[in-house]
């Protein structure tokens, strides 16, 4: 009898302990038909492009999230998340199996601390106040080739601390180890920010900077803790600066206001590449050069002579039954070393979502991007418009969360 009682008590204790832990499998699957006009083919020639595109609304992903209640208000948690492409089944984030996020940490009365690979606080501010993440495929290039991190960039080796919420106020501090023997600054990154929400109003800011990693020979592979630096010429060439020099600085400020079913949003980003110092001419050579690779070429967003960028993003969402209507104007201005005129990109983006269920929606987006005194980077990764200064794009698809 005693053995039976003890066994029952043991099983009960096991059941209680087991109930304090949970692991969730979750994900997003999204794809649609994409159309882009005036994609460069050869020389001045362009052609329309249509295809099945993955990750139009947001990136498809598969993740695992676990939480254990340790008692006294303290919890242990982990997140392991990988991105993939629906059209061909490939891993995203340059083939990293769990490249979107791998963190483990503790949370309690003193806040949350996480360790691993993840996005920094600029992503939180952008999600709250920018229109970029709401119409993802058509906004990254006009946001300085995502130099300001508005559509999400990640850092490795990160310590990430988030304070408790004090009446709507919350702050963040993040540090990425460069992990270079003999130099704490080589490949290091640092970020901080804060946000305040009260009823219909919200306002917040974030700062991020990264330092150049060590390079070998003529290699341009990004080995910094800041993995977003790969798209920025100032962080990813052997010719500019030395290992440990600050290669990018980002400041982001945003706010929103709800008026019933209408939400107004605004966000401003300032991006500097301190190591950019050489001129590539007084103006783009449109007569003989038709494109320039964003993030590496001259007179391009984040390119080899782009020392500074300012991005202005304003828009609105309107909820009407199962419909959500979205619109934004994004204007970015670029300082090019040796050029008197600032480069300009202006995008008009409109979208609509129709909710089929709690987990599934249909979406449509249309956009126009115009460039002045710089090369047009194109609205999507499917190609720039070459000698033409303008491009249009359309996306129609479905998204399911599980």
TrEMBL record:
<dbReference type="InterPro" id="IPR002299">
    <property type="entry name" value="Porin_Neis"/>
</dbReference>
<keyword id="KW-0626">Porin</keyword>
<keyword id="KW-1134">Transmembrane beta strand</keyword>
<keyword id="KW-0998">Cell outer membrane</keyword>
<keyword id="KW-0406">Ion transport</keyword>
<keyword id="KW-0732">Signal</keyword>
<comment type="subunit">
    <text>Homotrimer.</text>
</comment>
<keyword id="KW-0812">Transmembrane</keyword>
<keyword id="KW-0813">Transport</keyword>
<dbReference type="InterPro" id="IPR023614">
    <property type="entry name" value="Porin_dom_sf"/>
</dbReference>
<dbReference type="InterPro" id="IPR050298">
    <property type="entry name" value="Gram-neg_bact_OMP"/>
</dbReference>
<feature type="signal peptide">
    <location>
        <begin position="1"/>
        <end position="19"/>
    </location>
</feature>
<dbReference type="InterPro" id="IPR033900">
    <property type="entry name" value="Gram_neg_porin_domain"/>
</dbReference>
<protein>
    <submittedName>
        <fullName>Porin</fullName>
    </submittedName>
</protein>
<dbReference type="InterPro" id="IPR001702">
    <property type="entry name" value="Porin_Gram-ve"/>
</dbReference>
<keyword id="KW-0472">Membrane</keyword>
<feature type="domain" description="Porin">
    <location>
        <begin position="13"/>
        <end position="372"/>
    </location>
</feature>
<dbReference type="Pfam" id="PF13609">
    <property type="entry name" value="Porin_4"/>
</dbReference>
């Amino acid at each position: 009898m005693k053995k039976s009682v003890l066994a029952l008590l043991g099983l009960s204790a096991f059941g209680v302990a087991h109930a304090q832990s949970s692991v969730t499998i979750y994900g997003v699957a999204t794809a649609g038909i994409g159309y882009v006009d005036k994609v460069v083919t050869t020389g001045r020639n362009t052609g329309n492009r249509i295809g099945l595109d993955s990750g139009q609304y947001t990136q498809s992903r598969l993740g695992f999230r676990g939480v254990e209640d340790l008692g006294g208000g303290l919890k242990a948690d982990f997140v392991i998340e990988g991105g993939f492409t629906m059209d061909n089944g490939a891993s995203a984030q340059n083939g990293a199996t769990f490249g979107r996020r791998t963190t483990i940490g503790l949370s309690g009365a003193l806040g949350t601390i996480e360790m691993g690979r993840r996005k920094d606080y600029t992503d939180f501010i952008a999600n709250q106040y920018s229109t970029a993440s709401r119409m993802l495929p058509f906004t990254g290039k006009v946001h300085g080739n995502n130099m300001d991190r508005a559509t999400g960039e990640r850092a490795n080796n990160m310590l990430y601390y988030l304070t408790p919420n004090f009446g709507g106020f919350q702050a963040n501090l993040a540090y990425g180890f460069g992990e270079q023997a003999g130099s704490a600054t080589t490949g290091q990154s640092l970020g901080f920010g804060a946000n305040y929400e009260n009823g219909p109003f919200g306002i917040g800011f974030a700062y991020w900077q990264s330092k150049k990693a060590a390079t070998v020979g003529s290699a341009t592979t990004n080995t910094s803790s800041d993995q977003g630096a790969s798209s920025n010429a100032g962080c990813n060439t052997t010719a500019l600066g030395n290992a440990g020099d600050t290669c990018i600085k980002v400041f982001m400020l945003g706010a929103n206001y709800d008026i019933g079913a209408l939400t107004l949003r605004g966000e401003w980003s300032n991006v500097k590449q301190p190591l950019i110092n050489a001129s590539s001419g007084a103006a783009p050579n449109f007569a003989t050069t038709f494109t320039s690779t964003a993030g590496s070429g001259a007179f391009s967003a984040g390119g080899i002579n782009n020392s500074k960028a300012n991005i202005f993003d304003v828009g609105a969402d309107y909820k009407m039954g199962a419909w959500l209507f979205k619109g934004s104007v994004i204007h970015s201005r670029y300082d090019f070393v040796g050029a008197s005129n600032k480069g300009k990109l202006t995008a008009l983006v409109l979208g609509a979502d129709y909710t089929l269920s709690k987990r599934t929606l249909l979406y449509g987006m249309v956009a126009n991007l115009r460039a002045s005194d710089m090369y047009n980077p194109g609205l999507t990764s499917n190609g720039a418009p070459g000698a033409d200064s303008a491009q249009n794009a359309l996306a129609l698809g479905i998204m399911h969360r599980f």
